Amino acid sequence: MTQALIVIDVQNDFCPGGALAVPEGDAVVAPINTLMEGFETVILTQDWHPAGHSSFASSHQGKAPFETVEMRYGTQVLWPDHCVQGSKGAEFHSGLNLQGDLILRKGFRPAIDSYSGFFENDQKTPTGLEGYLRSRGITDLTLVGLATDFCVGFSALDAVKLGFAVTVDLSACRAIDLEGSLDKSLAAMRAAGVQLLATV
Ligand code: VGL
Ligand code: ZN
Q1: Would you say the pTM of this structure is higher than 0.85?
Q2: Which residues pair with 4 in a beta bridge?
Q3: Ligand 1 site-directed mutation target among 7, 20, 87, 105, most atoms within 8 Å of CB
Q4: Does 199 score more than 70 pLDDT?
């Protein structure tokens, strides 16, 4: 088997002080740097939105962050403006080791969000990550990063659907936990056959 570590969205805006701060988001940096030493292939994803992105509450009149809106592809949570291309908030946390082989940007199409590193939120538009992994013969993935219940969770579910063996190491993840989203995400991952490490 050939393994890869996929580090999801460890960016300033998801860390304390950021626009969409995940509680203890920066606590993932040290364990991720340690985990990287054990993997030959490391891939980082970077949430990368144009200004005025359709997932921002500020793009929808009368809507506040964390409300939802119906998009053509389904229900979308609206977020504070975050990870705007080229901004400080979109940069990786300064303590993160950036030795990765590939940095995959996602969420750059104005009209569609992308939680997963594999497919955008219409669940059809591929990012190309599947092809990258397959052409390198990678079969087993370990996912870590931010946030457990959004970008990590949806990436893990897509990876299982695509036939990869998937582990999520929860000791190097932190959650947003919006109205029970963490429990929902963990249950969905478990049901799909994702191996959850360090379950609390
Ligand atoms: C994420 C919400 C919006 C994440 C990204 O990285 O989990 N969550 N954009
Ligand atoms: Zn985003």
Answers
A1: yes
A2: 141
A3: 20
A4: no
